[in-house]
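Q: My labmate handed me this sequence with no annotations at all. I'd like to see what the chain might look like in three dimensions before we decide whether it's worth expressing. Could you predict it?
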Amino acid sequence: MLQPTLDEISAAEREAILRAFFKEGSDGPLHSYPSQNKKNLVVLANLAAMFEFDRSYKELELNLNLKSRFEDFATLRRDLVEFGFFERSQDCREYRRRV
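A: Here is what I predict for the chain of 99 residues:
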């Protein structure tokens, strides 16, 4: 099954997904994490926007930022890499935003 892209998801649908999963709008914490790839993509894109492009993040810093939005920060971190929003250094100590 092919992964959806953000371009294939309408702005209205993205807003509905963000409202459904974030407690206080898109800047608040997540109350649950979606299981569908399409919804994950929208949630992860929103979370990735918290980070700058031209900067490396130590794993601890990334974890603390993600934990402020959702208790299971390890799942968020892993999915940010798997969905291509971040790249991880070979030693897995640093992360850099890609998309």
